[in-house]
């Protein structure tokens, strides 16, 4: 992946792009129409979220709607100290730990499955169908199935057994699909070259395949983490007696009618953004290091 | 020692199977078994085979209405997400000339996907509520006298929340397949005198079919399998198949709920299989 050919294709693309733009200087009317649509979409996408972040900074008089009443961190303190809002801190703790475990397993297992799917093998269609089935099955139904199953064999539901499995049945198909897309850009010639140079199968994986696919693996990790951190339906019946964060938010939407709810939204979003930032940062870091090595 | 290639492949997928069998195949089988048992009325199951649960589910007018409501939300959400997702992707791929800008705008669309769905749903409350931003703005400019009641806790709010959450599931796959369309094909069509509409109808739409199919699978299966959006945003006014199922579970009516769940799963899988018949997703993704 040197930068020179990439730059060439980019320039090439730009030229063809310019060529297909219907009128050379000005833009067609469809551009303005679609640009407006796009802007409206982005405003509708972010607007409501920004509203609740703003509303979460009200003071003690604050309500669920605008206008904004005062400015303070009251509802954040309230969120973490009140009995009424439940064990938010514990829920954060449990959710993040579970998400980390799910992420690690998702990355390793999706990578391995994608390695298998590079070739056809007997029964591959069955595995693929099971994966798609697991992806589209209604989460609550699956969660209840897992709950009943654990009940039938006499194991208590708990975060690191039933909830972990139930979440993996959702993050893994996602992870494998992302890995498919990542793998499709992998040139098998690199692998063959490694083999020709005398690398063992394990060396090829460790020294060629994994470094080349590293940015894609980070993307899979990001998927695994956020899908688990946000997973609700499958976890509802499988988490055992203690709530994970989405379950906590869910019970709050039913019981709490104060800006504490919005404060919780602000806090979870900050965590999500930190995770996205870390993932993007890692990808940039990998690419930089690669660029430095290539030159 | 030589190990055959297919053995290696199976070794690679075995961890995946160790998750899918106990946490997808077996749970669905358990639900299937529960659906043909009788209940003792207190949450216990009596292991006698019966199809009465299915008879109840399939003949009750209530179930029919639930399915109708769920299908209505699914179709509406699918339509709006497809419309938005298609044109947003089209704009990014074919109208934004700077590739870096296109990727940046694409990332802007995807960021909210990584944040909590429930939070994004409740974030409509300060906007759509009776004293919300939209109502107060409309009141101030004198367009309405009374606050619009239908904005929140209604079918409208449910569709808004779904479209808000799920359009990304359309944008990403459609963007992916559009980005792979060879620009020279479009160029050739222009040279051959095709109109903008013809290019859309004969080139862009057919070549984005796999993205549309993949997006449709995501959107349809999520909406049909969801219950909290319907529950919260409709304010209890309308139910969905899964929310009824949840109510049944909470009063320990396992067999009836299980039968309804199996019917839903079968409907869902049939729908997905139908979509998958039209495009080979696996081939499309790995291409």
Explain the overall architecture.
The complex is a heterodimer of chains A (295) and B (287). By secondary structure, chain A is mainly α. Chain A contains 12 helices and no strands. The longest helix of chain A is centred in the last third of the chain and has 35 residues, at 260-294. In chain B, helix 2 (52-59) packs across helix 14 (254-278) and helix 11 (209-225) packs antiparallel against helix 14. Chain B is an all-alpha fold. Chain B has a two-stranded antiparallel sheet with strand order 1-2. The chains are: A mainly alpha (295), B mainly alpha (287). Chains A and B meet through helix 1, helix 2, helix 4, helix 5 and helix 6 of A and helix 1, helix 3, helix 4, helix 5 and helix 6 of B.
- Poorly predicted sequence stretches spanning 5 or more consecutive residues of chain A: 1-24
Largest interface pair: A-B, 97 and 93 residues
Number of helices of chain A: 12
Rg on CA atoms of chain B, Å: 23 Å
Could you list the spans of chain B in which at least 5 consecutive residues all have pLDDT below 50? none
| Helix content bin of chain A | over 70%
Largest sheet properties of chain B:
2 strands, antiparallel
Return the CATH topology of chain B.
MetI-like fold
Q: Determine the N-to-C terminus distance of chain A.
A: 12 Å
Q: In angstroms, what separates the terminal alpha carbons of chain B?
A: 33 Å
Throw out a few tags for this protein.
heterodimer, A: 295 residues, mainly alpha, 12 helices, disordered N terminus, B: 287 residues, MetI-like fold, two-stranded antiparallel sheet, 15 helices, 75% helix
Short précis:
By secondary structure, chain A is an all-alpha fold.
Question: Which helices and strands, and how do they pair?
Answer:
The complex is a heterodimer of chains A (295) and B (287).
Chain A: H1 3-20, H2 29-55, H3 74-81, H4 88-116, H5 124-136, H6 139-152, H7 159-183, H8 188-196, H9 201-229, H10 233-236, H11 245-255, H12 260-294
Chain B: H1 5-35, E1 38-39, E2 45-46, H2 52-59, H3 61-95, H4 99-110, H5 117-122, H6 125-128, H7 133-140, H8 155-179, H9 183-191, H10 196-207, H11 209-225, H12 228-233, H13 241-250, H14 254-278, H15 281-286
Antiparallel strand pairs in B: 1-2
Helix pairs in contact in B: 1-14, 2-14, 3-8, 3-11, 8-11, 9-10, 11-14, 13-14
